[in-house]
Amino acid sequence: METAAVLDLLKKHFALDPQNAKVLVVGLGSTGISVARYLQNKGFKFAIIDSRVKPPLIDEFLELMPDTPVFTGGFDDAAFKVATHLIVSPGLSLNEKPIMKAIANGSKIVSDIDLFACSVNAPIIAITGSNGKSTVTTMVGDMAKAAGKQVAVGGNLGVPALDLLAEPADLYVLELSSFQLERTSVLNAAAATVLNVSADHLDRHADIAEYAQEKQQVFRGDGTMVINIDDPVVGAMKDQDRKTLTFSVKKPADFYLAPQASGEYLMYQDQPLMPVDAVPLEGRHNAANALAALALGVAMGLDVVAMCEALRNFKGLEHRMQRVAKIRGVTWVNDSKATNIGACIAALEGYARKVVLIAGGDAKGADMNELAPVIKEKAKGVVLMGKDAPLIEQALKDSSVPVYAAENMKQAVKIAASLASNGDSVLLSPACASLDQYKNYQDRGNKFTKAVLALAT
Length: 457
Known about the structure:
The protein is an alpha/beta fold.
């Protein structure tokens, strides 16, 4: 979109114009740098502030924009006081005192997704949910490419949304977190979905109702709603006045599963699309992800044959139900990205046979009692580690499932190997965040992979 048209929209929606606005970008991470590039390109006056003494990307930023004011090592009241607009990193709560004070004094909150939405002509597919959003976002991107579209994929996954503007695109596919959605007001996606809602980020959201409300913001506007009718919280978001496509792994819907002569198939209304077994991912929840991706693609008019071919060739994501190895008849699966209860439950429910589960970490305020029923049904043994391992152990005290404690990943893998028999799976699906012991969930997954591969030698 031409810059003049973009600036008109920013002025209309946010009273944001280069002549009068003083923008404070709060947080110097990858999103903050993408915002800075955008603002510089559009001629805005802005400064950056970060509470860390040396943010990880500070050197890169100073090289890019040496003349931009940067405040580090705390939140300086003076910087907030002069700001007409705040663009706050999704990693920071809007309840930080300086941010709340600035808002009370009239500063407007704008998100990077708002800036993005005001800057594109091509349609947007927006994907959120507690679990599966990275998988579905990647699936839809692959489907669009297979259907011949020039597609840009990013947002909460990979490339920050504003950096996607560097190249032309026929279609944008965005993964969006609740933190991005809570501060976004003008997104009008051509097709959008909330895949599911389960307890997550309750250290940042007051309760699950508030969390679900933020997720629902993805449906702002008049685009097609893709609804998971297996999830009652998501089902309640359906708007009778909007075009809607539904998906389910439990009952008939627009996209669902049904038995055919040669096995179970992914279905579109009464049309068999492809066998479930042809989707190269473990677990029932990944069948749901495939159905959601197909629904989003159909909403955008993508060729169904091309989409199914993309699903057949889908490689999956690292640290997401990723098969690491099969050693002495035991399959080892890295699901380190399962940083909440819902993701762990979904992973366990995908197995017909009982597994050995490795779990634990930082529970982020979630109620670990919700894990107990599915662990009792699906786990033959549980190895726990990390800060909130005692919470999970307490939740399992009446379950009769054997529980073992480990100090680190290497020890957890050794214990799990002693519990697993030929034909079993060992599943790392922590149900917790990783930052109590690791740099991030990727680091945790890599440590798991290293420990597992060491078994083979």
